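Query form — protein Protein-L-isoaspartate O-methyltransferase

QUESTION: What is the three-dimensional structure of this chain?
INPUT:
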Amino acid sequence: MKVINLNGIGMTSLRTRERLVQRLREEGVSDEIVLNVIRTTPRHIFVDEALSHRAYEDTALPIGFNQTLSQPYTVARMTELLLQNGAPKKVLEVGSGSGYQTAVLAQLVPSVFTVERIGPLQEKAKSRMKLLGLDNVKFLHTDGGMGWPEKGPFDAIMVTAAPEHIPEALIDQLTIGGRMVIPVGADKQYLTIVDRTSAGVEIERVEPARFVPLLAGIR
Ligand code: SAH
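ANSWER: The structure tokens for Protein-L-isoaspartate O-methyltransferase are given below.
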């Protein structure tokens, strides 16, 4: 049996993680509750073993199928923006990928629904949730541009791949008062906040971003 060390040693130790958290603070992440979850979540189990020594660098890492695990700054920043709007109970994540962002969310909100279009990535993400004992996550293999209408509406939606335009279907699945954090754009992307109000939506561009594209269909 393969033994996985959740606490980490050397380059994956708590000390290394503390340095990462300090760097995120310097880059402007200020929500200490989010930072604490970043500190305690073993990012090294979300990448191939050959890359685990780089897991606590503030850098995006490949996870196969031309996809990447977002850089810790991005995960922390998006999470802090998502939670800034209150305490969402039910959250949809579009683009489970490695499951790292999913695991971070699952420690901060009661219930996470996550969708992914690439089956094998989702299977790995699932087993990592199990390993961490996070049992408040539901997975679906689907084209997430459509969201997960059967389970909606959601208090918050986090999208981790970039569409050219904000998908209407996702706005429809937000509760009134709900917030979506989503990278938007083709060549030039912006991390964008979409707040649903009783009058419609309020959209705010936050900062430039670089994400893999939101693609249609499943594989
Ligand atoms: N949150 C992930 C980031 C993965 S990268 C992590 O922490 O690892 C973005 C992910 O979005 C990829 O896994 C990609 O397959 C997925 N994706 C892209 N378009 C999608 C779509 N239409 N529906 C669902 N997932 C999609």
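ADDITIONAL NOTE: The chain has a mean pLDDT of 95.
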